[in-house]
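Record type: monomer structure entry
Structure origin: computed from sequence
Chain ID: A
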Amino acid sequence: ILDALAAPGVMRRFDLDTDALERLGRRVRDAGVRWGEDEYARADCGGYREFSWAFGIDRLLAGFACGDADDTLVGGTAPLAGVEGAAFADANAALVVTHAWRQLREESGHPRSAAAWQALLNSVLDKLYQPDPRDLTETRALERIRGALAQLVHDCRATGNAPELPWLDLRAFLREQLANPDPAQYLFTGGVTFCGMVPLRVVPFRVICLLGMHESAFPRRETSGLDPLLADRRAGHPRRGDRDVRADDRLLFLQLLAAARDAFYVSWTGRDAHTNEALPPSVVVAELLDAVRDHYLQPPPDSDMQRQRDAWLPRVEPLHPFDPALFGGDTQPARSYHATWLPAARAPLRGAKGLPPFVTQALPAPRDQTDEVRLDELRRFFDNPARGFLEAALQLRLPRSVDEDADLEPLQPDAPLLRYGLTETLLANGAADALRQQALLRAQGALPPGELAEAAFAAASVRAAALQAAIVEFTGGMAQTGDIAASVNLDAGLCVSGSVAEVYSTGLVRASAASSLTGKRALRAWIDLLFATAALNQPIACRLFWYEKDAAKHRDLASVTPGEARVKLTALVAAMRAGQRSPLPLFPQASWDALKRARVQKGEAKADEFVANLTAQTDPDADRAPGADFLRPEVLMAWRGVDFGALDAHAANALYTTARALLPTLQAGKPRT
């Protein structure tokens, strides 16, 4: 459906642009659409409606009817928030295309006359497609479709009995007609003419170029169309004069060869772009090469001359236009003068030593920088300092996360990401009714289908219950006291403003479904603790909870005085400001793991151990978890040209001192259950 909406004529019909298509695609994914039309299309796979197109459309319509009420069910459907105004106009286009597709699917189950098929398909084209009269190619394509249908009607009527045609035969006929070259070829327009492969016979051209002559592309395979002569030959009953598509194409190739006067150019892709596997040419091209070698080239006297001849014919060209070989070298002249590809051709290859650093000196501070810093901005920067640098200094807008495969759906109840997301949701909802939560999560597409939902919800409920019990033990079962909202004045006229949530009389609570205490979570909690301490002007506790080895664990951050909190908060703001001009030598998870600040017996790592631990994580052969700092594209970009395996003393010291100064300090003691 989305591919049909992306057709230019369909976009014009519904007044869509590329941004609207991207928004619609995101909403469809957010609605839980993965594959299949509805539960009936999945009868052999359990017959569940979740993650189907109909499931997502129901959520879109419910969202338009109910607004942003996404925490309730409407007739068993969970509304999708944010579907209003222009968003619904985009969704309406999807509804119209869906209706046309369903109409075609229903009609395709019954044979119809050629005239009935013509009327149906022309009405669908009129309903969905608005051609551009200025685009001759598009106009001609529509004319060919309508003309093929009209010719089919004429031919069927000529038989005298107007046979009824099944959909499969009609589709095969249209594919065959559209695969043939357009008979309206513009060959004598002067200059260079691009056209389909049509018989030229004795029409001379100075140069004829055949592109894309792959083994599977030419000669063509016989289609399963409506031609009864082809059907007879496939059945083993050929007669003299029956059409042979492959023989026709071989004759066409000979005619094109004979029509070339000065040059006959043939090309094909000789290597797979992904595997580099050799790809053979068309059989007629291979035969032509054999004929040239056998009858027009002298036999090579030795193996060396044979290798030279084979290297000359066929000529092997680079696969990409930015290949350095095209731009010449010490011994070869340049064969390309395309300035657009020259920078890429001169760029060092991936993995090459001596890459220039991405940043050699600090860039100017952002123009909109003020003395006031928002707490959310501080948190986001230290979540990923490399991203913060690219966004602030270079105004890059990088995607926050990689989109999952649009066809995947949660089918494993114990999948780590699914379990993490469900546990986080249950923690956020607190002690809400379990059955209601399960029904809502299923309607939102957050649970696996069918009976798998029970197992996934049960596993997440166990984890959430253990974490909630640990939180109750810390808070004494008391309710939250309310957010801490304030503006904290720091030295040098700086001011940090924002609010801190999840505040209890016993301190801050930071709970996560993660299986370990991560550096990112600890640093975020540390920022909140410093801000809350400075805002309240008194020390406050902060306890971190996570679920590890079938039990809820916790550690406390070290409390600080209000004066210490302001000093450390000032250092964090200064580090952020410096990190917005040049990459900050801090990697939240990698630096946290290397510093070993959560280690109990040996304590945190010294400088040498820290550097060794950190550089070990940059080893491309190391076993690193998905999402590790040194696998992030923004880190690889911002720190390009830095060899962490050969750090000088200054760089190593900067990494160590930055981690020690900015990462949080934990209370002494082991993680407790």
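Annotation 1: The chain has a mean pLDDT of 84.
Annotation 2: The CA atoms of residues 427 and 468 lie 7 Å apart.
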